[in-house]
């Protein structure tokens, strides 16, 4: 019997170096395979998963390999999902199939159709809808006028909204109500938070409120089996709410009705490897494609978002007050120059008046939070005789002294050794820590405030599963007087007994080379301040201390007035003058090699190929330079900044340029990796 073969385009994961980004043609005996269908196809000698895609018109090559298997039991991935993936691949300059398959749950790619059918049947059996009937009245607090206005605006029309509210102003309450409206209309809701350790809190709050609804989480902390199950429930339309981190932006949601990105300014929304996408920006695109509202929430919006509000492209919904009329903590800038100088020492960890203020809190049974964005005991050890320092032999960085396990640890490559007894260069026994990390701060507070119950939360104390929850539990229960930690504790947590927050040493970020450093510092300090006085009763006597050598800096002046708008205006003025985002579009081309010169030559050659074209488009390609940490794990890194007045010009240039890089690389032996980062967060 004659079997008719049709040509189908299939997005498959092709290795980047082949330069094949587009879908490949295959022959199929199944007529009319809808786009979005999962299939298995041969690629080289392997059989790989793929997704049927729209086929551009044109002749198919004569000898096509056949599609091996159609995974027909899974409903096809929808048009808008494919549009999102197609846009992301083009915008961030990745292969379509590579991105499309990378954002599916890894387990899904391993299953054949029989296994998949079984899984789906099991899901339908096991996941009977929750007992409580949907439509339970919202048993939360009654909204205030601003909150109600925000919920109404979001429900009234699709578009991008900035929910601009200080910490504790009731933003989450607005998300809950907007979600309720979308759910009541039979739609699904996607809520994204920047960090995985914030998902359990949010999940608990949503789960409590939406007892009758099916809610799933999507983040990298799930087991592969959980991630598949949650993804499938979303894709099959069985889950009503998806809560997750940045990867959730790619969840398949056939009934999507609302997207929320909480703390939209947070750098964690940007993926830092592979396809370096911004989940916040993709959420805005997705909302546009699907015609659903997108709510970006923040107390300190990213300047990109803020500029779009000023241009009228996003609508600002303001929550200007803290719930319960609580005031924001009084900001006290402590001038470190007023302390008596101590020769050869970094000075005291905490200014005496700050120690006094903490002691008063302890007496009243209140808590204090000390924030220092550097973990370990000291960032470097040095020899007082010969000047030796604890450099990493594999990186251009110091190794950090961790006193707990007496190790010297490189935070870039992980290289770890026991602390030497004597200087490895001259044998001197007097090797001393320079500077201060959270471990040392914890020790010094115990000395300054004998009897105080001090706890420390940072990446080192929260390695084991459950330890973060346990430590946060102790803080909430009032078993801790002083909490020391890195930015992990500055964000999101709803502490009720903290009345003093102190930034121990925030100055270094004022003078960092990265143009976004001030923006990041300001939002971190505003966030940290927001941890104090969350209980309205205590708000009036809550304080935020900033220990600084530059008390007159404009950033701190704006912080003191909690004046985001003044800060943003100043920053935008500087960005405009310097031709930086949001007034320009950037891309960063990176290359790595054993020797810097090799990476540099590669990038130079790449620049030469498009120099003339770039100039004609008004795009500037800067010479390659080493990044702040140039060498990591014995590999040298170089980066080249591309700056364009518009997104469009940058996109056109990159699209024609990057395919040439694959051949160029073959001519530059020794280049280990290269990558492009569109809209890089740090340069
Ligand atoms: N209208 C309201 N009436 C009474 N209480 C409210 C109201 N809205 C919110 N709350 C309560 O106030 C507290 C802070 O609200 P919420 O967590 O929504 O603020 P937020 O802006 O999301 O805070 P943050 O950004 O600091 O995490 C919560 O305990 C919440 O239940
Ligand atoms: Zn190292």
UniProtKB/TrEMBL annotation:
Annotated positions binding Zn(2+) 1: 383, 386, 423, 426
Q: Which cofactor does it need?
A: Zn(2+)
Q: Name one GO cellular component term.
A: primosome complex
Specify the enzyme's EC class, one word: isomerase
Q: What GO terms describe the biological role, i.e. biological process, of this protein?
A: DNA recombination; DNA replication initiation; DNA replication, synthesis of primer; double-strand break repair
A Pfam family annotated for this chain is Helicase_C
InterPro entries, sorted: DEAD/DEAH_box_helicase_dom (IPR011545), Helicase_ATP-bd (IPR014001), Helicase_C-like (IPR001650), P-loop_NTPase (IPR027417), PriA (IPR005259), PriA_3primeBD (IPR041222), PriA_3primeBD_sf (IPR042115), PriA_C (IPR041236)
Q: Which reaction does it catalyse?
A: ATP + H2O = ADP + phosphate + H(+); Couples ATP hydrolysis with the unwinding of duplex DNA by translocating in the 3'-5' direction
Q: Does the keyword Mitochondrion apply?
A: no
- Keyword Nucleotide-binding listed: yes
What the record notes about the co-factor is: Binds 2 zinc ions per subunit.
Fill in the subunit field for this protein.
Component of the replication restart primosome.
The job of this chain, per UniProt, is described as: Initiates the restart of stalled replication forks, which reloads the replicative helicase on sites other than the origin of replication. Recognizes and binds to abandoned replication forks and remodels them to uncover a helicase loading site. Promotes assembly of the primosome at these replication forks.
**Family the entry assigns:** Belongs to the helicase family. PriA subfamily.
Q: Write down what this protein is called.
A: Replication restart protein PriA
Q: Which organism is it from?
A: Aquincola agrisoli
What gene is this protein a product of? priA
């Amino acid at each position: 019997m004659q079997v008719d073969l049709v040509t189908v385009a299939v997005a498959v994961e092709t290795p980047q170096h082949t330069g094949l980004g587009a879908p490949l043609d295959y022959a199929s005996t199944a007529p009319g395979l809808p786009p979005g269908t999962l299939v298995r196809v041969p690629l080289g000698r392997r059989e790989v998963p793929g997704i049927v895609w729209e086929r551009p018109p044109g002749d198919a090559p004569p000898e096509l390999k056949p599609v091996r298997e159609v995974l027909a039991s899974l409903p096809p991935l929808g048009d808008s999902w494919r549009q999102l993936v197609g846009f992301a691949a083009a915008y961030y300059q990745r292969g379509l199939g590579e991105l499309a398959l990378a954002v599916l749950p890894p387990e899904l790619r391993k299953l054949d159709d029989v296994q998949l059918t079984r899984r789906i049947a099991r899901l339908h059996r096991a996941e009977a809808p929750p007992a409580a009937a949907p439509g339970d009245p919202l048993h939360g607090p009654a909204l205030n006028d601003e909150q109600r206005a925000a919920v109404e605006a979001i429900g009234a029309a699709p578009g991008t909204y900035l929910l601009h509210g200080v910490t504790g102003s009731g933003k989450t309450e607005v998300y809950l109500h907007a979600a309720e409206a979308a759910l009541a209309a039979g739609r699904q809701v996607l809520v994204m938070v920047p960090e995985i350790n914030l998902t359990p809190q949010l999940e608990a709050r949503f789960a409590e409120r939406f007892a009758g609804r099916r809610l799933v989480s999507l983040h990298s902390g799930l087991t592969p089996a959980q991630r598949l199950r949650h993804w499938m429930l979303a894709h099959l339309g069985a889950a009503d709410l998806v809560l997750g981190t940045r990867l959730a932006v790619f969840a398949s949601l056939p009934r999507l009705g609302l997207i929320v990105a909480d703390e939209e300014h947070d750098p964690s929304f940007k993926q830092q490897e592979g396809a370096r996408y911004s989940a916040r920006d993709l959420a805005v695109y997705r909302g546009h494609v699907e015609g659903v509202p997108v709510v970006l929430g923040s107390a300190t919006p990213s300047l990109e978002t803020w500029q779009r509000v000023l241009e009228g492209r996003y609508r600002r919904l303001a929550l200007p007050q803290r719930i319960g009329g609580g005031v924001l903590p009084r900001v006290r800038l402590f001038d470190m120059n007023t302390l008596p100088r101590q020769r050869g020492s970094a000075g005291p960890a905490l200014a005496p008046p700050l120690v006094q203020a903490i002691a008063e809190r302890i007496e009243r049974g209140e808590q204090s939070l000390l924030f220092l964005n550097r973990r370990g005991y000291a960032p470097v050890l040095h020899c007082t005789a010969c000047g030796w320092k604890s450099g990493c032999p594999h990186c251009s960085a110091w190794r950090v002294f961790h006193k707990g396990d007496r190790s010297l640890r490189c935070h870039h490559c992980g290289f770890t050794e026991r602390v030497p007894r004597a200087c490895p260069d001259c044998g001197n026994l007097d090797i001393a820590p320079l500077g201060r990390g959270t471990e040392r701060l914890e020790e010094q507070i115990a000395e300054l405030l004998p009897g105080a119950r001090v706890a420390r939360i940072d990446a080192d104390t929260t390695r084991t599963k459950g330890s973060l929850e346990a430590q946060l539990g102790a803080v909430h229960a009032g078993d801790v007087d002083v909490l020391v930690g890195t930015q992990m504790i500055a964000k999101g947590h709803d502490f009720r007994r903290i009345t003093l927050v102190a930034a121990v040493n925030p100055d270094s970020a004022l003078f960092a080379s990265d143009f976004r450093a001030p923006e990041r510092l300001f939002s971190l300090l505003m966030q940290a301040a927001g941890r104090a006085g969350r209980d309205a009763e205590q708000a009036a006597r809550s304080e935020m201390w900033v220990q600084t050598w530059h008390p007159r800096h404009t950033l701190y002046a704006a912080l003191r007035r909690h004046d985001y708008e003044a800060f943003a205006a100043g920053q935008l003025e500087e960005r405009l003058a310097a031709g930086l985002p949001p007034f320009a579009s950037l891309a960063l081309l990176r290359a790595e090699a054993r020797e810097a010169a090799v990476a540099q030559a590669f990038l130079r050659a790449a620049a030469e190929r498009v120099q003339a074209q770039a100039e004609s488009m008004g795009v500037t390609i800067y010479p390659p330079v080493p990044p702040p940490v140039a060498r990591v794990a014995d590999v040298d890194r170089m980066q080249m900044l591309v700056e364009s007045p518009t997104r469009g010009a940058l996109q056109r240039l990159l699209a024609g340029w990057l395919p040439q890089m694959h051949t160029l690389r073959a001519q530059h032996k020794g280049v280990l990796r290269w990558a492009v980062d569109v809209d890089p967060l740090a340069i």
